[in-house]
Write a structure and sequence with these properties.
The complex is a heterodimer of chains A (247) and B (246). Chain A has 247 residues and is α+β, with helices and mostly antiparallel strands. Chain A has one domain (73-246). Chain A contains eight helices and seven strands; from the N terminus they run ααβααββββααββαα. In chain A, the strands form two sheets. In chain A, strands 1-2-3-4-5 form a five-stranded antiparallel β-sheet. In chain A, strands 6-7 form a two-stranded parallel ribbon. In chain A, helix 1 (4-47) crosses helix 2 (62-72). The longest helix of chain A is centred in the first third of the chain and has 44 residues, at 4-47. Chain B is mainly α and 246 residues long. Chain B has a domain at 40-161. In chain B, helix 2 runs parallel beside helix 8 (141-171), helix 4 (52-76) packs across helix 6 (109-121) and helix 4 packs antiparallel against helix 8 (141-171). Chain B starts with a helix and ends in an 8-residue tail after the last helix. Classes of the chains: A alpha+beta (247), B mainly alpha (246). At the A-B interface, helix 1 and helix 6 of A face helix 5, helix 6 and helix 8 of B.
């Protein structure tokens, strides 16, 4: 039988050893993981304009993704009043990189609404500009987020891509895994005929208003409602920017 | 006397991979299956099996974690104080799971994203803890390692069977969501390239989709309970060793 002293020393040594291994591994892989995360995010942003690219985003190499981002994408950050903000303001908001792509929507969501800043990615292809906007909301288990690409009339949706932190595979996770879901958003409109902001809703059982509604995912009602809420609120936050750009 | 000593040495030197070792690997696949016989790891079998691809990755991750935590626990088994052995085992499991997670995150970010929650859940998978307590604490490292591999595979096999049934009947697809590099499913704007896909507009999938209506019950985790029950039933019908004679 081991005595208390031995037990204490044993657990202490074991804890220190495993903590050391884990922290070394964490810092050893951090740079790689961060880069992978950035590229992953850029792929998601690009896949919202998937119809305008000559190659499918999932088939691109990491370098191709970075190249397209460098050559065809311009990034801006806008504040809640719709003004384009400088790099200094981004750094001041807590992102050391100072680039619009460094903005984390998760952090912005926690700030008061009038202090938030949002990234806008302007993708140009064939002389046409497409504005990619980031939105974030809640699904069933955890956060969901997405990128919505709109034409320069700030009304027609070109495409969308969604992602989630912990939705159930086969149910809520379909917003990301099933390309048919995000494809349903193509051609939908944000404003109705009277110019009223209506956004796009995910509905259950039959689309009645084809301009502003898309079919939901069966078995994932809460995630679908989350997407509806996220789009309504998230895109509305860009409204001052739309109005300024439209002049 | 001299002869006797020589004999003893020969007896002690067992082959690295003999009959006993083989049994350790094959037993959990059938006679001592972790899910259908030991009834461990049911929770994750319910949660991750709605699609085949995540189930396969989960099976591989669990196999690695069981095998190596068995190995390390077995190496430490004489030093582990009995009073705190559960906590020590938990530290070993948690460390290994975190190692798997960190490596996946750095080298295959897309899969890490897909499995994020479930990797953490390996820590609470009863199979890992169960094998450490039942086997690794009382056996030598090499055998414990093999026992871990065997149990991981036995668990993974059932997981894959359940997920094939669930994905096929629940969604009309197979291997949806697997990475493009595997070429199992085509790029996102060519959904016709699923192996089987009832939503596609041409080919076999289209023909199936023309008369088959997806069964939404299969998508819910409840379905795996029925399926596991069915598998246990079939397993016991064909394996007489499992039936109580009393």
């Amino acid at each position: 039988m081991h005595n208390t002293r031995y037990t204490l020393i044993f657990t202490l040594v074991l804890t220190i050893v495993s903590a050391t291994i884990l922290s070394l591994l964490f810092f050893g892989t951090k740079d790689r993981a961060d880069l992978a995360a950035k590229i992953f995010e850029k792929r998601a942003i690009l896949s919202s304009v998937g119809t305008l690219l000559d190659k499918d985003v999932s088939q691109m190499t990491d370098q191709e993704v970075l190249d397209i981002f460098k050559n065809q994408v311009e990034q801006e950050a806008v504040d809640a009043q719709g003004n384009v903000v400088e790099s200094a303001k981004i750094t001041q908001s807590g992102y050391n990189g100072g680039l619009p792509e460094d903005i984390e929507m998760a952090k912005e969501r926690k700030k008061p609404e009038d202090q938030r800043i949002y990234p806008v990615y302007i993708f140009s292809a064939n002389g046409e500009k497409v504005y990619i906007l980031s939105v974030r909301g809640n699904g069933l288990w955890d956060e969901i987020w997405g990128n919505v690409a709109v034409k320069s009339d700030f009304n027609t949706i070109v495409g969308a891509s969604f992602d989630h932190k912990g939705e159930t595979p086969g149910l809520g996770a379909e917003i990301k895994d099933n390309p048919a879901f995000s494809a349903r958003f193509r051609g939908k409109e944000l404003y109705d005929n009277q110019g009223q902001y209506t956004s796009v809703a995910v509905v259950k059982g039959g689309v009645k208003d084809p301009d502003h509604q898309v079919d939901g995912i069966s078995g994932a009602t809460i995630t679908s409602n989350g997407v509806t809420e996220m789009l309504y609120r998230g895109l509305k936050e860009y409204e001052p920017f739309f109005n300024k750009e439209k002049g | 006397m001299a002869e006797a000593t020589v004999k003893e040495v020969v007896q002690e030197k067992e082959p690295l991979f003999g009959k006993k070792e083989k049994k350790l690997l094959t037993d959990p696949l059938n006679d001592n299956n972790p899910i259908t016989v030991q009834v461990l790891g049911i929770c994750s079998a319910l949660a991750v099996t709605s699609l085949v691809y995540p189930s396969i990755v989960m099976a591989i991750a669990v196999t690695l974690v069981v095998a190596f935590s068995n190995l390390f626990t077995s190496l430490l088994r004489t030093y582990i104080p009995k009073q705190v052995r559960m906590i020590v085992q938990l530290v070993i499991i948690a460390t290994l799971v975190t190692v798997v997670e960190l490596i996946l995150k750095a080298f295959n970010y897309a899969i890490w994203k897909q499995l994020s929650v479930f990797i953490g859940l390996i820590i609470t998978n009863c199979i890992v803890m169960g094998r450490l307590e039942a086997f690794a604490m009382a056996n030598k490292p090499w055998r414990s390692f093999l026992d871990g591999i065997g149990n991981g595979l036995g668990y993974g096999g059932i997981l894959v069977i359940i997920s094939i049934i669930r994905e096929l009947f629940g969604k009309g697809t197979l291997f949806a969501g697997s990475p493009a590099a595997l070429n199992i499913i085509g790029p996102s704007n060519e959904i016709n390239k699923y192996w089987i896909n009832t939503a596609s507009s041409s080919g076999f999938g289209h023909w199936v989709g023309s008369w088959y209506f997806n069964n939404n019950l299969m998508v819910l985790s409840t379905a795996s309970l029925f399926i596991i029950g069915g598998i246990i039933w079939i397993h016991r019908t064909y394996n007489k060793k499992l039936v109580d004679i009393s």
